[in-house]
Design brief:
Distance between the termini: 26 Å
Shape: elongated
Keywords: DNA recombination
Strand content: under 5%
Low-confidence stretches: none
Radius of gyration: 14 Å
Largest sheet: none
Mean pLDDT: 75
Structural class: mainly alpha
Protein backbone atom coordinates (compact mmCIF):
# COMPACT_ATOMS: atom_id res chain seq x y z
CA UNK A 1 0.00 0.00 0.00
CA UNK A 2 1.39 3.39 -0.93
CA UNK A 3 2.45 5.57 1.99
CA UNK A 4 0.14 8.49 1.10
CA UNK A 5 -2.85 6.17 0.69
CA UNK A 6 -2.13 4.59 4.08
CA UNK A 7 -1.89 7.97 5.83
CA UNK A 8 -5.05 9.23 4.10
CA UNK A 9 -6.94 6.05 4.97
CA UNK A 10 -5.91 6.16 8.63
CA UNK A 11 -6.51 9.92 8.85
CA UNK A 12 -9.98 9.48 7.40
CA UNK A 13 -10.85 6.77 9.90
CA UNK A 14 -9.34 8.40 12.97
CA UNK A 15 -9.89 12.08 12.31
CA UNK A 16 -7.21 14.71 11.83
CA UNK A 17 -3.60 13.59 11.75
CA UNK A 18 -1.61 15.53 14.37
CA UNK A 19 2.16 16.13 14.17
CA UNK A 20 2.60 13.81 17.16
CA UNK A 21 0.55 11.06 15.53
CA UNK A 22 2.59 11.41 12.34
CA UNK A 23 5.85 11.20 14.29
CA UNK A 24 4.71 7.97 15.94
CA UNK A 25 3.54 6.64 12.58
CA UNK A 26 6.83 7.55 10.88
CA UNK A 27 8.89 5.83 13.58
CA UNK A 28 6.75 2.69 13.61
CA UNK A 29 6.38 2.39 9.85
CA UNK A 30 10.10 2.94 9.29
CA UNK A 31 11.17 0.38 11.89
CA UNK A 32 8.46 -2.28 11.61
CA UNK A 33 7.57 -2.20 7.91
CA UNK A 34 10.69 -0.85 6.18
CA UNK A 35 13.16 -2.39 8.65
CA UNK A 36 15.19 0.82 9.02
CA UNK A 37 17.56 0.55 12.01
CA UNK A 38 15.97 2.13 15.06
CA UNK A 39 19.01 4.34 15.73
CA UNK A 40 18.75 5.83 12.23
CA UNK A 41 15.04 6.56 12.70
CA UNK A 42 15.76 8.09 16.12
CA UNK A 43 18.29 10.50 14.58
CA UNK A 44 15.94 11.32 11.70
CA UNK A 45 13.07 12.42 13.96
CA UNK A 46 15.40 14.12 16.45
CA UNK A 47 14.66 12.00 19.52
CA UNK A 48 17.36 12.37 22.15
CA UNK A 49 16.62 9.14 23.98
CA UNK A 50 16.62 5.69 22.44
CA UNK A 51 14.15 4.71 25.17
CA UNK A 52 11.57 7.07 23.67
CA UNK A 53 12.01 5.59 20.20
CA UNK A 54 11.84 2.05 21.58
CA UNK A 55 8.70 3.04 23.51
CA UNK A 56 6.97 4.10 20.28
CA UNK A 57 7.79 0.76 18.67
CA UNK A 58 6.83 -1.23 21.76
CA UNK A 59 3.40 0.44 21.91
CA UNK A 60 2.90 -0.25 18.22
CA UNK A 61 3.79 -3.93 18.63
CA UNK A 62 1.28 -4.30 21.46
CA UNK A 63 -1.47 -2.66 19.42
CA UNK A 64 -0.60 -4.62 16.28
CA UNK A 65 -1.00 -7.87 18.22
CA UNK A 66 -4.36 -6.84 19.69
CA UNK A 67 -6.90 -9.15 18.04
CA UNK A 68 -9.71 -6.60 18.40
CA UNK A 69 -7.93 -4.29 15.95
CA UNK A 70 -8.34 -6.86 13.18
CA UNK A 71 -12.13 -6.90 13.37
CA UNK A 72 -14.02 -5.22 10.59
CA UNK A 73 -16.02 -2.36 12.11
CA UNK A 74 -18.79 -2.93 9.54
CA UNK A 75 -19.75 -6.08 11.46
CA UNK A 76 -21.33 -3.81 14.08
CA UNK A 77 -23.35 -1.57 11.76
Amino acid sequence: MAFSILVNDIGRKEGLVSPQWFRHFFVNYSVMELHVPIQQVQRTVGLASSQTTEGYVSQYRLKKNDASLHWDERLFD
